């Protein structure tokens, strides 16, 4: 099981809304050779982390099956981000698309990139709530925490499930 977090808070080049861009990204992930999308979470809206004057994010998680090297997956996801118009400037900048590998099965690695599982996933409701929707039994292979336990341990964060697909 490969879990990929999707987020956006700026329009994509061409004017697509963040939610449309997130849906578009699911299609692009499906096109990565050797991968198959098993489930797509509902979309959520969340305040930026850390707090800033940015617009809210649309977030979700996809559960993907298949075999791919972590570095190859990271490169493919960064190419999709670039296609959507993401330009890496400063940390935590607003962006038309953000794709993060949350976990790849039971893989635990500290280097090289990507670090797995994602080192900040358990701190973020905008990752954990949609992750629970697509992998309710997921357990962080580094900490051993189940997704529900991680959610229960979170401080209050601004996030709401969006209606519709």
At a glance:
The chain is an alpha+beta fold and 165 residues long.
Provide the descriptors you would attach to this structure in a database record.
about 160 residues; alpha+beta; Alpha-Beta Plaits; six-stranded antiparallel beta sheet; 4 helices; 6 strands; about 25% helix; about 20% strand; globular; ATP binding; Hppk_sf
Describe the protein in words.
The chain has 165 residues and is α+β, with helices and mostly antiparallel strands. It has a single domain, classed as 7,8-Dihydro-6-hydroxymethylpterin-pyrophosphokinase HPPK (Alpha-Beta Plaits, 2-Layer Sandwich). The protein is 26% helix and 22% strand. The chain is built from four helices and six strands. Strands 1, 2, 3, 4, 5 and 6 form a six-stranded antiparallel beta sheet that branches. The radius of gyration is 15 Å and the shape is globular.
Topology:
Elements: E1 2-8, H1 18-30, E2 35-40, E3 44-46, E4 57-66, H2 70-83, E5 98-104, H3 125-134, H4 147-152, E6 159-161
CATH topology name: Alpha-Beta Plaits
The CATH architecture classification is 2-Layer Sandwich
**How much is the radius of gyration in Å?**
15 Å
CATH superfamily: 7,8-Dihydro-6-hydroxymethylpterin-pyrophosphokinase HPPK
Helix run count: 4
Helix content: 25-40%
Number of strands: 6
Strand content: 15-25%
CATH class: Alpha Beta
**Sheet with the most strands?**
6 strands, antiparallel
